[in-house]
Structures are given as C-alpha cells and as structure tokens.
Amino acid sequence: MQAAAPNAPELISFEPVNHPTPAIVAQSAVRRLPRMALLLLCAAYVLPGFWGRTLWKAQDIEAFGYMLQLAKPGMGDMVSWLKPTLLGSPDSNLALLPYWLGATFIRLAPSGFEDTFARLPFIAMLITTLAATWYGVYALTRHPAAQPVAFAFGGEAKPADYARAMADGGLLALLACLGLAQLSHETTPALSQLCFAALLFFGLATLTRHRLQSAVAITTGMLGLTLSGAPTLALWLGIGGSVICATAQAAPAQRRLSMLDLGLLALICLLCITTAGALDLWRWRVVPHRMVDLHVLAKLIAWFTWPAWPLALWSLWRWRGQLSQGWRYPHLGLPLWFVTVTVGATWFTGLSDRALLTSLPAIATLAALALPTLKRSLGALIDWFTLLFFSVCALTIWVVWVAMQTGTPARPAANVARLAPEFVPAFSVGAFALALAATVAWAALVKWRTGYHRAAIWKSLVLPAGGAVLCWLLLTTLWLPLLDYARSYAPLVQKVTRITGPSACLQYAGISKAQGAALMYHAQARLVPMQTPQPDCAWLLMDNVNRSLLSAKIKSLGWVEEAAIKRPTDKSETLVIFRPATKSDTSPATPAR
Q1: 3-state secondary structure 223-252
Q2: Which of helix, strand or coil describes residue 558?
Q3: Is 107 exposed, middle or buried (0-12, 13-18, 19+ CB in 10 A)?
Q4: Pairing relationship of beta strands 570-580 and 505-509 according to DSSP bridges
Q5: pTM score, two decimals?
Q6: How far does CA 172 lie from the centroid of its chain?
Q7: Do residues 568 and 420 lie in contact, with contact meaning Cβ atoms separated by under 8 Å?
Q8: Burial class (CB in 10 A: 0-12, 13-18, 19+), 288
Q9: Do the domain assignments include residue 29?
Q10: Are residues 312 and 368 in the same domain?
Q11: What is residue 3's predicted lDDT score, i.e. its pLDDT?
Q12: Rounded distance between C-alpha atoms, residue 196 and residue 358, angstroms
C-alpha cells in the first residue's frame, strides 16, 4: 500500500469520535424557560398548603406543639431550648433548629395567628430548597464532561445557556415528584432536613468555582442537618461529597481543591461532630429488616419519586460511559452519592418516606441529565401519559367538589358523607376562582405543549411539573375544608369543649403528643399530668386505647367517666372525658318501692 503524502489534507469527521458525553444539543434547544412563568409555577406550588389550612395529624401538629411549648412565657431558659419537651417527654427526632425557628416566629405572632407565623420559616426553607436545586444543577452541568458534543461547524449549545436550560429541567423534575407535595408543606424537621441537604448539595456542586459561597452553603447545610436531627447523614453526605469534589477531573475554568479547602471541610465536619456531641444529638435509629422488605422499599421509591426516577434510570444508562468512573465526573458522582446515602438511610431507619425526602434534589438532577438524551418517541410517551394522568386527577377533584356542593353525582357525595360524617361543605369564592384559574392555565399549557413550537430540552418536564402543581393547588383550595376536617384534630377538640366548656386547665393521662398539642392549641388549655381533681382543673382526658391500663388508678383518684368522643373520620381514635366523682356516684342506689 502506498503511503500517504506528508502534506495531504486530513479528512474531516462530522461525527464525534469517542466523546464521553451522549448529549447532542443545538443552541436552538436551550432557550430559556420564561422566568415569570417559572416563578408563578413555584409560587403556585409553595404557598397553597401553607396558607389557610389548619394543622394536620400527626407529625405536623406534634412539631407545632414543641414550638408552642418553647414560645410560652417562662420557657425561654437555655435548658428548655436545648431539651424541648411536650407532655413532659423530649423529642425523639432530636431536632432543635426547626423548633427554635418556629418558636421564635410564634413569639412575634398576634393572638390566633401562631400557626401562620410558625410556618413562615418553613416557607423560606421550601423556597431555599427549590433555589438550591436550580443552582446546584446549573453548577454541575457547567462541567465540560456534562456539556454536549461540539459540532464540526459550530452551532452546539453554549455552556451557560445549556446549564441554565438543564437547571430549569431539574427544578421542573423536583416539582413533579409526588412525594414532595405534602411533606414539604408541613412544619416538621423533615422539611428542614430537605432544605439543608439541598444547601449542602449546592455548596459541594459549586466548590470548585466559588470558594466563599460554597463554604457558607456547606457549613450551613451540615450544621443545619446536624441541628435538625440528622448528624450522621450530614457527615456521610459532606465527607463523601468532598471526596468526589477532590478527586473529580478539573475543568479548565475551575480549580482543584487545595489543602486549604480540604482543611476547611475537615473543620466543618469537626464542628458538626462537636455540636452533635455537646447537644447529645447522636442517636442510632437502625431498624433491622428482612430481605422481603426490599419490595416495600421499591414501592415507596416508585411512587414517592415519580416521575423523576424513570428519567434518572434512563440518564444512568445513557451516561454509562462516564458512570464507571463517576467519582471523576461530579455531575454524576455527586447526585449518585446523595441518592445512595439517603436511600440507604431510608432502608436502615424503618422505610420512612420522610427519610427519603432528602434524596429528591439529587434524583431531580439525574432526571435532568436524561433530557438531552431523550428520543422523540420517549418524550411523546411521557407527555401523553402525564397529560392523561394529571387531567384525570384534576377532573376527579372537580367532580368530587361539585358532588360535595350540590349532591350530584350522588355516588361521590355518598362516599364523602360516609368517610367524613357530619362534615358540612362550604363554598369559597376565592378558592373557586383560584382553582378555576389554575385549571384554565393547565389547559393553556396543554395547548402550548401539543402545538407547534421550537424544541427545548426542558419541554418533556413541563407537563409533569404543571400537572403536579395543578393537582396540589386544587387539593388545597377545593378540597381544603374536607382535608382539614379529615386530617386535623379541630373537630375532635370542638366536641370535647362542648362538654368541658371553656377550660384553662385540663388533666391528661395516656394521650399522644399530637393529641396533647391539639388540646393546647385548639382548646387554649394548659395540660397537667393526671392527679386528684382540682377546682381549677376539673376535667381529665385519656386516649381510649389506654383505658384498661389506667382505669384502676383513675378510679382511685376520684374520677368518673363523663363521655367518650370519637374522632369523626377515625373510629379507632377516641378521647374519654372524666369528671370528679360526686356523692351520687359513690352512694348505693335507693331500692325501688
């Protein structure tokens, strides 16, 4: 074979050869999602569920009870703030920071608005979670290994525009997750753990670009997790994430971690360990499980992280060329580490959805990485499935609401009457107008998505996120009175106060913390442990499940049962009310003549 001439021109290849990234994205596909539309979508998700509803059982009202106790006058001493108690028992979650924040805002609240003010820091936490997820995805996808293939004649997506479009997709994926809705709108330590885990994720993602802001975010995230009852999770996520950042392949515009960075990370970890030890926050909650429980974990992950998890799996398959050395590529290694640790924590601590909540920002990041690799047929399948699913859900919510208001259709109205006896529906013009506007916006979104428009890589997540926000908004407007009646203790406490009357003091025996918090807040009563009847504390309440254990002691102290009040929507939950015994209760009956 004749050798090629030394000055012969080289052949130009129009296809990338051995490029590590599967993303092929043109500049026209990374147009910005309109900021006003994105902000309105986030507002429609964040605010409903925090405003206008009462506290639900059981963790929501229980956490509020701890805050209420700390906010009481005379409870401001340091020992009480370091050891919050409710009904004389300390918090098993060992969460201090969320209770401190809630109690601080309760002290600023006018009378009757304590629950509204207690939610303000948690609204800020959810907003912080969304923002940290967006900026975390943006920082990770700026890495050259996450960037799309460079075209032979140009026209590929610009790095900043591509990262911004991917961040939009990551935020949409987070909003679409079904498990985020309820738990992210409660005043519980679960939301604070989600917030600080997202901050830690953001800090590690930007560590090689912005030293100061990353250090602040990492410190806040790890200390926040520690003070929210998850010091072990903070250390696992922080140390593992730091190792990934230290061993990752450096980009030209980035810097490798120096000894100063590593020393700073070590100091942050030492600070978390010292804080957890000083405040006695170390608790092992490992629950042994049999292998058969794996299907329970799989079912929990399947519905809780839907629809992000199929996209996350697709992204792992398409990016498998980099996955074998994931520690070198932070856009894969960092979210994978967060998912692994949080799913492991869920498995070993009792298969709790609250533990799985902290994995959602990382799963949303992996789902975003699938967007530039989706085939048109797969994107169309996602669109049609989410369109049908959320449209049917929204239609169901509307039909049940109409049945509650008018009695037609009869079957849904009968089901509501059976599941929520004594519930009286009320029409709210404001709630109806907001729900109608959201439904019209959903129809406009569907029309836009099914119409002809320029392609954008985030388009496949618009309908899932919009549908999730629509259904959550409809539930918290049209169904809010029904949900409050079914999930709060307010109806039960109202029945109790009809018997006891306005009482500044109630005695208790064998009630749950959630029940105690509800009595303190809804009945505006001071609770004291069971003792002999007192003139200013002449009623005793007890959970019916403990009656057999305490009946002898109750009788010996001079109490007589007055009534048993069932919770309207839960026949297994009953409060028994006792009054002081009188002579007529103890004297023998007069024989009939």
Answers
A1: HHHHHCCCHHHHHHHHHHHHHHHHHCCCCC
A2: coil
A3: middle
A4: unpaired
A5: 0.91
A6: 15
A7: yes
A8: exposed
A9: no
A10: yes
A11: 43
A12: 9
In a domain, 574, yes or no: yes
- Given a contact cutoff of 8 angstroms between Cβ atoms, the answer to whether 14 and 152 are in contact is yes
* Tally of residues, the chain: 593
Q: Which of 373, 397, 415 is the last residue of a domain?
A: 373
The secondary structure element, H or E, covering residue 155 is none
In the chain, what is the greatest distance between 2 CA atoms, to the nearest angstrom?
Answer: 134
Pick from 397, 394, 365: which is nearest to 467 by CA? 394
My answer on whether 297 and 415 are in the same domain is no
CA–CA distance from 397 to each of 306, 383, 389, 422 (Å)?
20, 21, 13, 20
Q: For residue 375, give every residue at least 6 positions away whose Cβ sits within 8 Å of its Cβ, in sequence order, or none.
A: none
Regarding whether 539 and 457 lie in a shared domain, the answer is: no
Of 373, 394, 410, which marks where a domain is finished? Answer: 373
Domain that holds residue 43: 34-373
363 and 383 together in one domain: no
CA distances from 578 to 520, 528, 534, 538, 554 (A): 18, 14, 13, 9, 9
Q: What would the pLDDT profile of 60-77 be if each residue is shown by its tens digit? A: 999 999 999 998 876 556
Span 352-384, pLDDT tens digits? 888 899 999 999 999 999 999 988 888 888 888
Is residue 419 one of the residues assigned to a domain? yes
Question: Do 233 and 369 belong to one domain?
Answer: yes
The two structure tokens encoding residue 181: 């809705």
